[in-house]
Amino acid sequence: MTGVPASAAGASPETEVLMEEPVEPLGARPAARGGKIAAAAVNEASLWNVANLLTMFRLVLVPGFVMLMLAEGGYDPAWRSFAWAAFAVAMFTDLFDGHLARTYNLVTDFGKIADPIADKAIMGAALVCLSWLDELPWWVTAVILGRELGVTVIRFLVIKYGVIPASRGGKLKTLTQGIAVGMYILALTGPLATLRWWVMAVAVALTVVTGLDYVRQAIVLRRRGIAERRAASGGSTA
């Protein structure tokens, strides 16, 4: 390099522009591609994290729970105890995998979809089995499952406006449902059978109340989102 401008040396302006462009080091683009491939591989591998594996385990556990619940006609205390153990494991892993995903940043798209499906699958299987065995009124099963299905539909309808966070009432509802259904799975008798009826009554009440509150929050969220969009649209045109 002599430090003489290209134009002074008789070069054309086009040549000068080309000479001023930085030269890309050899192998830079392949390295970039390699980095993207490596990142994609990491993202793909993250599907098999501990939280997602627990969710998959809960999904696989559902048919096993149904088999245990209905074994020997569905009224054998021993098989019902095994079914309760499977249900308890599913409920525990539900709390555990969510905590792991949030604490260690293991949240994935698969987990967002599969986790609520696994929750509703084990609870729905237990309710349907209990109603099938005439131990729980079908209307109770319909109210609980109807609420869960309705909330899921509403969540998808308002997702473009925002996300409704889980409330304390919703968490209490889930806990009460788990306790009540677990007590019914054990086929208790005597005073405990009476107690489980009251626990289920509280669970149904919380199911209805929290479901209505979720509808209210969804309506408020939708109205707020529409108002914000209108305000933003009006501001841009002004």
Descriptors:
single chain, 238 residues, mainly alpha, 8 helices, 77% helix, 0% strand, globular
Short description:
The protein has 238 residues and is an all-alpha fold. The protein is built from eight helices and no strands.
Describe this structure in words.
- It is a single chain.
- By secondary structure, the chain is mostly helical.
- The chain is 77% helix and 0% strand.
- The chain is built from eight helices and no strands.
- α5 runs antiparallel to α6.
- The longest helix has 47 residues, at 191-237.
End-to-end gap: 55 Å
* Share in β-strands: under 5%
Helix content: over 70%
The low-confidence runs, each spanning 5 or more residues with pLDDT under 50, are 1-45
- Write down the overall mean pLDDT: 80
Structural class: mainly alpha
Number of strands: 0
Number of continuous helical runs: 8
Name the overall outline: globular
The radius of gyration computed from the alpha-carbon positions, rounded to a whole number of angstroms, is 29 Å
**Main sheet: strands, sense, barrel:** none
Identify the quaternary structure here.
Answer: single chain
Order of helices and strands: HHHHHHHH
